[in-house]
């Protein structure tokens, strides 16, 4: 007994045989179709269920290693880029021609540490070599050009995205091409103008540096080397002493005197304090060195005061006619040159403050108590400049009205 499925196959087969004698181009096709149906009918089992054909054999397994070899065989294929295939790596170094003989100077970094850098002055030539060391000798280094720059720039910490360059010199070392082995390129910047002193402060940094750049398709290779620049100045012809009377009317009248008005940074400030009238219970007197850093212009000016030194010159109540000596060594303090309106970005000024403190912890000095009085305590602005081989502190006292 055949199943319904086999009956349909036989009916189709008989219908195909009925039209087998019909003329036309499809006669042979119908005959072959009938033979295939007859063979399928004989292959049916007694239950009438057709046997499922065996699955095709699986394709031969391919090793991961062979696939990876084919992916990287192109060298520059898109898959190699996605997988991070690294190109030729190179180590860049900048060496000055007079590195062995050139002096080094300590300079404070942003984190407050001191490091030594090569020291330059305005107008000096900067020359050396840019060395390229290929790490893989079997690969070539493709580049879009090699250059070196000498840059002087000002960086304001509140505007780190914008660097204000006041010196920018460029030398092309190589045109676009390939490098097959390690080599060095000479460079020279003759009589470079370096108008300002290197400076790192609370809110601003002025730096000079060399920058070597290898331009590449994906990412550039950049190497920087900082240098320190000191500006030079001459000694003023006049170096007169400072003598000034200050105080509070009917309460305190003192006279202070400094032996000279110009000091280098390793000098000693020598002077005296004379008490002409004392009607206030004073218990303490000191001299402060204050650095004022000014950044910005116009309405966006910001002042940052930093007390460099506090030097106690008296402890206890003075009496009328008493004289207190002053001897302040500047070598132990971190003083930098005064900078006035540097590239219209910032200024640095120094002040000497004479401060008196009474028994009630009240502080007497010009800025806070009597700013408009000619008898107020003096605030003496100091101008710091640099002269080889010494620094200079030029003290300008305030004239009374």
From TrEMBL:
Keywords: Protein transport, Transport
Ranges of compositional bias, category Pro residues: 52-61
Superkingdom of this protein's organism: Eukaryota
Record GO biological process: intracellular protein transport
Pfam families: Vps26
InterPro entries found in the cross-reference section: Arrestin-like_C (IPR014752), Vps26-related (IPR028934)
Annotated spans, Disordered: 32-67
Entry's family note: Belongs to the VPS26 family.
Protein name per UniProt: VPS26, retromer complex component B
UniProt organism field: Canis lupus familiaris (Dog)
Record lineage: Eukaryota, Metazoa, Chordata, Craniata, Vertebrata
């Amino acid at each position: 007994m055949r199943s319904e499925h086999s009956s349909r196959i036989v009916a189709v087969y008989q219908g195909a045989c009925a039209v087998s004698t019909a003329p036309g181009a499809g006669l042979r096709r119908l005959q072959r179709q009938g033979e295939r149906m007859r063979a399928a009918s004989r292959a049916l089992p007694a239950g009438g269920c057709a046997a499922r054909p065996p699955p095709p054999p699986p394709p031969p397994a391919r090793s991961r290693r062979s696939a990876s070899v084919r992916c990287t065989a192109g060298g520059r294929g898109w898959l190699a880029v996605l997988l991070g295939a690294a190109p030729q790596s190179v180590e860049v170094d900048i060496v000055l021609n007079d590195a062995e003989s050139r002096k080094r100077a300590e300079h404070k970094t942003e984190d407050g540490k001191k490091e030594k850098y090569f020291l330059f002055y305005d107008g000096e030539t900067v020359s050396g070599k840019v060395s390229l060391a290929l790490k893989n000798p079997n690969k070539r280094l493709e580049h879009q050009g090699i250059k070196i720059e000498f840059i002087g720039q000002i960086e304001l910490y509140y505007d780190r995205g914008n660097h204000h360059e006041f010196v920018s010199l460029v030398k092309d070392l190589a045109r676009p091409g390939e490098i097959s082995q390690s080599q060095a390129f000479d460079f020279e910047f003759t009589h470079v103008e370096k108008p300002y002193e290197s400076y790192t402060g609370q809110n601003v940094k002025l730096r000079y540096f060399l920058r070597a750049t290898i331009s590449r398709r994906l990412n550039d290779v950049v190497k920087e080397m900082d240098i320190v620049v000191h500006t030079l100045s001459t000694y003023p012809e006049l170096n007169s002493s400072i003598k000034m009377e200050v105080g509070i009317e009917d309460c305190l009248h003192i006279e202070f005197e400094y032996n000279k008005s110009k000091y280098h940074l390793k000098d000693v400030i020598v002077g005296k304090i004379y008490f002409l009238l004392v009607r206030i219970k004073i218990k303490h007197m000191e001299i402060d060195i204050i650095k004022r850093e000014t950044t910005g212009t116009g309405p966006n000016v910001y002042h940052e005061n930093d007390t460099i030194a506090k030097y106690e010159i008296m402890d206890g109540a003075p009496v009328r006619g008493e004289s207190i000596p002053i001897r302040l060594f500047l070598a132990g303090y971190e003083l930098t040159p005064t900078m006035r309106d540097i590239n219209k970005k910032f200024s640095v000024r120094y002040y000497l403050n004479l401060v008196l403190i009474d028994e009630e912890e009240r502080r007497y000095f010009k800025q806070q108590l009597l700013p408009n009085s000619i008898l107020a305590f003096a605030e003496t602005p100091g101008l710091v400049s640099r002269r080889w081989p010494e620094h200079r502190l030029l003290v300008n006292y305030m004239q009374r009205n």
